[in-house]
Amino acid sequence: MTGTEPVEGTTIRLNLTVDGQDRSAAVDSRSLLVEALRDGFGVTAPKVGCATGDCGACTSRVDGLITKTCMRLAVSAEGSQVVTTQGLAEDGELSFVQEAFWSEQAFQCGYCLPGMIFAATELLARDPDPTDDDIRWALSGNLCRCTGYEAIVAAVRTAAARQREHLQRD
C-alpha cells in the first residue's frame, strides 16, 4: 500500500424524514449529507456544486435551519427532518417564492436555485416587505453564474407582493 488508496467506510442505515416522508437508506459512513440525499435517498433537488459551501446548490432545510448539505456529514443528520426545494411545494402547488422564480424566469442552469429559494423563503418569513438591499443581502450567500441577479431580486419582490396579497385576503 502506498497510503493513497481510498479508504472504504462502513455502510450505515440512515433514517431521515425527507420532504415529509420517513425514509431510510444505506449510506457510506463518510458520505456528506448531499451525497446521501442524492445517492441513498434518490432526492435530486440538492446538487453538488462547489463542494465548499459557497454556492448554495446543495442547500436544504435540516431541522428548521438552512443548511449547506455539502458541509455536513450524513451521519450527523440521523433522525433529522430534511426539507428540499421539492418539499416546499404544498399539495402540488409551488410556494410563492418558487412560483415567482418561475414567472420571473429567475433561473437558467438551476445551479443556484436551492440556495436562492431557501434564502428568499427565510427572508420573507422574517420580513414580508424587504427592500432591494435586504433582498441582495439575504441572497449574498449564494452564487449565480447565469442571471446577473436582477431577475432573482425581481422574483423575490414578486413573491413578497404575492405573499402580502394572500395574507390580506385571509
| CATH level 1 class label of the largest domain | Mainly Alpha
Order of strands, main sheet, comes to 2-1-5-3-4
Largest sheet: 5 strands, mixed
State which percent range the strand residues make up: 15-25%
Structure, explained:
34% of the residues lie in helices and 16% in strands. With 170 residues, the chain is of the alpha+beta class. It has two domains: 77 residues, Beta-grasp domain (Ubiquitin-like (UB roll), Roll), CATH 3.10.20.30; 81 residues, DNA polymerase, domain 1, CATH 1.10.150. The protein has a five-stranded mixed sheet with strand order 2-1-5-3-4, with helices on both faces. The model has no long low-confidence stretch (mean pLDDT 91).
Briefly summarize what is shown.
With 170 residues, the protein is an alpha+beta fold. It has two domains: 77 residues, Ubiquitin-like (UB roll) (Roll); 81 residues, DNA polymerase, domain 1, CATH 1.10.150.120.
Defining traits:
Ubiquitin-like (UB roll); DNA polymerase, domain 1; 2 domains; 5 strands; 16% strand; globular
